[in-house]
Design brief:
278 residues, five-stranded antiparallel β-sheet, 5 strands, 12% strand
Amino acid sequence: MGKKSEWWWRPDKEPNCAAEIAKDFHRYCKQIIKEAQENAIAGYELEAKEEALTRELVKAKNDKNEEQIERYANAKKDLEKQKEDILYHVEAVILNEFNKAFKSGSEYLERNHGPQLRHARRERFPLGWMKDGGKIEANIIDKYSYFSAIMNFIDKLTRYLKVEEYDKMVALYKTATDGRKYLHPDSKEEYQFSSFLVNRSFKDRISKELGCSISTIEKYIKAFCKAGILKMFGQRGSRGGVLYSDGYYVEKSSWRHKVNFVIDTKKYRKALREFNFK
């Protein structure tokens, strides 16, 4: 293997590689434009024509033929203008092709790797309405400092699922419960719960990632349930542990969107103002 790029993945640091990828893209784009322009110049035989005009112009100057000098000088200027127009046209065509490819690539990534793209997006918690400058912010951001970190861990766990991961989640849910779905209080429509298994492995992962104790994690999960942020089903899955849910999935033919239980309502504002481990 060749030398790895400076932004290559390191276990201790996620890459910030967009700038490096952009540089590579720009270099490649310039290279293609240059090669296409050279091919166009050769194809139109402009260099050969320019050399011929230069020879004729030199000959006219040597013969001191003013009429021929003006004629070939003007012809050379016209040729240079033609060359500039061709180079600009080639550059414009190539850039438009790159733009089409860029859009096609973006569509491909969204279509085939949507979960991975969304997985790397910024963390959702705390939500905007939670940063109220008052009791909620003082409570869940200042006092209970792991609130957002644990919520973001759970949110990513259930929001960005590949098809096979989603199918496994649904299968586990059905084996651990009676298969009932979330009944929306307003629309009365039923939706699949976004569920996850809390076992020793789950707690170890959060503890390692966030640097907090397992007992602290357990306190937060209990408090989340008390506040209505999580729902505990109580039944144990086939691998042990307890099944919880942080929301539900609204599904259409071509997409699936997770909705958290905790939303901006009087009920949840009150719950977060009073959030505690008691």
